[in-house]
């Protein structure tokens, strides 16, 4: 005799487990950690607000000095922008050379990267400040003209000065140009590795497909490979930009008088208020790096479109509405 549907349903309901009353897992350690962090944060805030060593009126007075503001804009920010601009361009060129089939280009790129990654930026900038010793003013300074004129002119039996343009190398390398050259030369070595990693992250079939439709290798690199590589290149480049902003404080080794940290250090030396001026410099760097981090977030979101599995809230809502219909 067959079992009725009603009886089978009742037996199935009896076999199912009852409602599970889940008890949340307690984490007492979290509350202890939160309490400890809160106490430490309040202690730090109390010290910052009440310790007379901070001298907040003098901090804000130093920050509002015209020479400091001008040094932040024309020294810190401008050096950061120009050094990163030339560093990124040089890094991309070095990365393309490193990936070239030409062994000479690969060797030159590797040697450049090896050399400038091995030298600390403080040492490199200090060398830039004294690089004029290679081109003494008594010998005409840094000159542009007929190369090796002391050999060629004597061999031809000619006389006269065959230098077209001369400049004082000490003034050139110890100033703003020396700062940009030193920072950009160092940054190009790091950007070369970042760009090379980004280019290698793009499937080789992209280049082959572009060349199959008639694109040259250089055109395919600019139009196909590099735009896709930006997803990998942008995050570390943003970090390098923030690091470059902070490394402009090393320009005190030249010294570059138009830089913000140099001006604040001079104010502290004249007034014997060294700690407050260092706090002022810290606030400037905090504000600038916070703005750069926000810009980096938007750039990563822009170049990361189409990658990953994250669904935007609006898109997810649209999917739910479509499924309901």
UniProtKB/TrEMBL annotation:
InterPro entries: ArtM/GltK/GlnP/TcyL/YhdX-like, MetI-like, MetI-like_sf. One of its GO terms (biological process) is transmembrane transport. It is a multi-pass membrane protein. It is found in: Cell membrane; Membrane. One of its GO terms (cellular component) is plasma membrane. Residues 73-296 form the ABC transmembrane type-1 domain. It holds the Pfam family BPD_transp_1. The chain crosses the membrane at residues 31-51, 71-97, 118-138, 172-192, 275-295. Keywords: Amino-acid transport, Membrane, Transmembrane, Transmembrane helix, Transport. Belongs to the binding-protein-dependent transport system permease family. This is Putative ABC transporter permease protein. It comes from Microlunatus phosphovorus (strain ATCC 700054 / DSM 10555 / JCM 9379 / NBRC 101784 / NCIMB 13414 / VKM Ac-1990 / NM-1).
């Amino acid at each position: 005799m067959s079992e009725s549907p009603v009886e089978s349903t009742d037996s199935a309901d009896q076999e199912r487990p009852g409602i599970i009353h889940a008890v949340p897992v307690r984490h007492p350690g979290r509350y202890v950690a939160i309490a400890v962090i809160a106490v430490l944060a309040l202690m730090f805030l109390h010290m910052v607000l009440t310790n007379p060593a901070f001298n907040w009126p003098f901090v804000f007075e130093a920050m509002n000095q015209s020479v400091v503001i001008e040094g932040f804009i024309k020294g810190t920010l401008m050096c950061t922008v120009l050094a990163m601009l030339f560093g990124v361009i040089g890094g991309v060129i070095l990365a393309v050379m490193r990936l070239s089939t030409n062994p000479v280009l690969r060797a030159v790129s590797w040697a450049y990267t090896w050399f400038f990654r091995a030298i600390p930026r403080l040492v490199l900038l200090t060398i830039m400040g004294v690089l004029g010793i290679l081109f003494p003013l008594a010998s005409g300074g840094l000159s542009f003209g007929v190369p090796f004129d002391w050999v060629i002119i004597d061999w031809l039996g000619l006389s006269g000065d065959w230098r077209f343009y001369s400049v004082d190398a000490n003034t050139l390398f110890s100033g703003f140009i020396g700062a940009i050259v030193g920072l950009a030369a160092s940054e190009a070595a790091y950007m070369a590795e970042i760009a090379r990693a980004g280019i290698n992250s793009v499937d080789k079939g992209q280049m082959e497909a572009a060349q199959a439709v008639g694109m040259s290798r250089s055109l395919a690199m600019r139009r196909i490979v590099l735009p896709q590589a930006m997803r990998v290149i942008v995050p570390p480049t943003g970090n390098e930009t923030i690091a470059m902003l902070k490394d402009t404080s090393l320009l005190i080794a030249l010294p570059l008088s138009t830089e913000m940290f140099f001006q604040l250090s001079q104010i502290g030396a004249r007034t014997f208020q060294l700690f407050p001026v260092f706090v002022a410099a810290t606030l400037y760097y905090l504000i600038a790096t916070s703005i750069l981090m926000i810009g980096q977030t938007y750039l990563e979101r822009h170049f990361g479109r189409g990658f990953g599995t994250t669904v935007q809230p609006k898109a997810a809502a649209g999917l739910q509405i479509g499924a309901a219909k």
